[in-house]
Please model this.
Amino acid sequence: MKSTVEPLSPTRVKLAVEMSFDELKPAFDAAYKKIGAEVRIPGFRPGKVPARILEQRIGRPAILDEVVSKAVPQAYGEALQENDVRPLGQPEIEMTKLEDGDTIAFTAEVDIRPTIEVPDLDSLAVTVDPVEVTEPDLDNQINALRDRFAMLTGVDRCAATGDYVSLDLAATVDGQPVEGGTTTGLSYEVGAGDLMLGLDEALVGMDEADTRTFQTQLAAGDQAGMTADVEITVRSVKEKQLPELDDEFASTASEFDTLDELRADITERLTRTKRLQQGAQARDKLIEHLISSTDVPLPEAVVNGELEWRQQAMTAELEESAMTLESYLEGLGSTVEEHEKELRESVERAVRTQFILDAIADQREIGIENDDLVGYIMSRAQRVGVSPDEYAKQISSAGQLPAAVAEIRRSKALAQLLESTTVTDTAGEDVDLDPYLGRNAPGVTDHADHDHGHDEGQPVESATESNPKN
Model:
């Protein structure tokens, strides 16, 4: 077999492969065996039909098609190894020569990882925000705890923002009931703003047994975007009574006897959280530095593939909630055009980050140990709510083990960089990243190269070396 490689761009190559028919004998033998087992010819047992008879019965072209379908993927894989090509995704195969009894030739265009010149990694330094627990931070935590122990008490007055009402609700469009738009005895906090537009304004001022109708635009379901008439009836009005902020509350809501002890514990926990946030901020700033100082050509097919994957995942998620992309974005004050622009920028950043970290991992010859893989599997299994064994089976059966290995290598590369980076806060104080690195390794890159909400998005390594399908 002869093979050559021709660079088409920094991220794409063309392989040219040529084989003689002598080299195809194993493929012909396999083709005769496979077809012979499927074809029924009187006088011959299945699998025992001579090649000459098979060709007379089904034709030489059918035999050649079977040979090509098996020989080309195998030859493609061998050509990749011979030319040290690391492909991303499936190739575009074109048969260029098929002379029966003589030669078979084809070309294969495929995306590859770009060659990246790793920037100088000595004397890296980033600045992060200082760890500071403010009184508002502390008050927010304590008030959230008071909310959990609040009591609801009936009141003889009209509903106001912050009250809880029990209500009946029925939505109609052109006089016809909206599917799923009727409920009774619903408990709702006035002012929450998480049910439907206009509801909070309608509820304010209503008393027990009052009925009122308002109009709203439906945000989900088959009638999303339509205007609905919504009739609401208030069954009861209750106000939230927060417990007194004293030692008795502290002993009831926690393991501490005094309010001072509770406040000290919350302050300590907030401090730990902010130290982890410092680590995440240092990570993000380091990645931004790597991206801005490194030229990374992007394979358009890889970017588009990841973009399509994320869009499909988001669409499926919204469909489960009976929402459209347009209505979801409207609630965020965004448009489809803005969303697509932000999504593409996020994907391009993710791909650049992965390529850079892969290059650094290669340069430093970073490998992974069995403990690294076990830790990764246990962490991800816990995140998605399955057993480690089940998660391991899932990624193995889906062919995602190479992607997991690549992600671990990236995490280790980034962790090494963070360990050698000088990190100070804006006050000039040195920052210790051990709490962050100890908690996150080997998952340091979890939010560095994926869109938030979609941190299980398909990584570039999903387009790993594989045989073409013919």
Remarks:
- Residues 259-462 form a domain with the Trigger factor, domain 2 fold (CATH 1.10.3120.10).
- Residues 259-292 form the longest helix (34 residues).
- The longest strand covers residues 227-241.
- Residues 11 and 114 are 5 Å apart (CA to CA).
